[in-house]
Amino acid sequence: MMEIKSYYGGQYRDGGASSFEKRYPATGEVIGQVELATSAMLDEAVAMAQEAQKPWAKRSVQDRGQILIKCAHALREANEDLSRLEVQDVGKVYAEAVSADVPSGPDVLEYMGAAIMTYHGTQHEWPGAIGFTRRIPLGVCAGIGAWNYPVQIALWKSSPALAMGNAFILKPSEMTPLSALKIVEIMEDAGLPKGLLNVLQGDSHLGSAICNHPGIAKVSLTGGVETGKKIIAQSAESLKRVTLELGGKAPLILFDDCDLDKAAATAMDANFYTAGEVCSNATRVFIHRPIAEEILSRMKTMTEAMTVGDPMADDVQMGALISETHLEKVLSYVGQGVAEGATLVTGGDRVHPQGFEQGYYMRPTILSDCTDEMAVVREEIFGPVMSVLIFDDEEEAVARANATHFGLGAGLFTRDLARAHRVADQLEAGNVWINTYNLIPPDMPFGGVKQSGFGRESSHYAFEAYSDVRATYIALDD
Length: 478
Ligand code: NDP
Hints:
By secondary structure, the protein is α/β, with parallel strands linked by helices. Helix content is 39%, strand content 22%. The protein has 16 helices and 23 strands. It has helices spanning 39-58, 61-77, 79-90, 94-101, 104-117, 150-163, 179-189, 204-212, 225-235, 260-272, 289-304, 324-339, 375-378, 394-401, 417-426, 461-465; strands at residues 2-4, 6-8, 11-13, 19-23, 30-35, 123-126, 129-137, 140-144, 167-171, 197-199, 218-222, 241-245, 251-254, 284-288, 343-346, 350-351, 361-362, 365-368, 385-391, 409-413, 431-434, 453-454, 467-475. The strands form 6 sheets. The chain has a 7-stranded mixed beta sheet with strand order 15-18-19-14-13-20-21, sandwiched between helices. A 6-stranded mixed beta sheet has the order 10-9-8-11-12-22, with helices on both faces. A 3-stranded mixed beta sheet has the order 1-5-4, with no helix packed on it.
């Protein structure tokens, strides 16, 4: 049984107030006890982070950048170890963790290390005066994470903060406490000064204490919309800067001139990858009427060929959901969808794979005959449930795609270049994909509009979330 503690100021810390059980979603077994950090531990971690941040901010951008690039290389070398932890944390399949989810962390860290070396402000001139702007770090920043991509969330939040000269405190989700600790160990071994990156274990109470803490200048959340609203309210007293990566209910529009094979396979990936526990997933698949029957039949065949079970097995395509409670919630959405008139094309039930009977598994699910008013179409389910909707023309597709308070991702498939641009330009989303889905290279920003949040992760835009701009005006004559 693992003892899972907080790590700050360069070492593991005892003194947590109480503990909760960490379960492996694939088996339901308790594999560790997580010690919850107290508010005194938060105070101590903030004080240590403040001390570590001062000399870090004074180092040259070349120094900081090179250290972060070394850390990225060290994390890549530990890719398989980190991927096993990601599986233990989340229950997702190892093949996904090792090939994409875990490497996406070091990729962004490396990008931030390189980008900070070339980052500079602006210069201005007037008669008898000049001016310049500089980006300055905020101090101690904090990240509060969701449970679906713990490695990615830890690094996408901390790397721009560290590159800009801040210290960072991360509170992973209580359900995924493992990998962040390993990340800090690896980065400190690779040369990151101690006290700059810190992990505090805890639940929403700790999250709330972080938002209220006067020594923390900024908080970045990945989580649900309702949590996002609470974070803003809780951060108001200290006027903390806030960025929010929240939920989604993304549309994927398949026009009748698209590559059917590619469109059907992408729609599946955009729903069933990580058992559907992806914020940007395209859970509303709008299909042009002339190709609807054909696409639906292909997706049904492919979905029924998917194997669900042991996340570490090579022949498994979908692992477990995060918890029993979440599984029940997802299944109840399927029931509600059918009760509201949707047709269950495939899936919709819990499965108990041999040897993993107590794990939190369900079959990937497709619902057709959906309408825009159904709860399965309006609300974020965060599980492997695809809703299929039929449309007749472009204008209708765009209007229905945008009829949501979410605005994280959106996608479309067409071979018509003009239509691709025209439609992409009208979709209300922070990230739009054409003839593909869910790809986010480190030099592209990621984030939402509307109630999917604000602020951007990845790319140089992320620097803005972890710095202020100072304008200096210099008079050169009397
Ligand atoms: P939650 O919103 O429940 O929790 C997110 C984090 O916030 C957790 O660490 C949680 O702590 C913490 N938290 C909860 N309440 C508070 C509070 N009042 N104050 C401070 N912190 C708090 O989300 P889930 O973990 O269930 O993750 C799923 C959600 O995350 C989905 O809505 C999904 O769309 C979204 N998400 C968004 C992404 C994006 O980039 N836009 C990416 C991935 C997920 P704890 O749970 O430990 O108690």
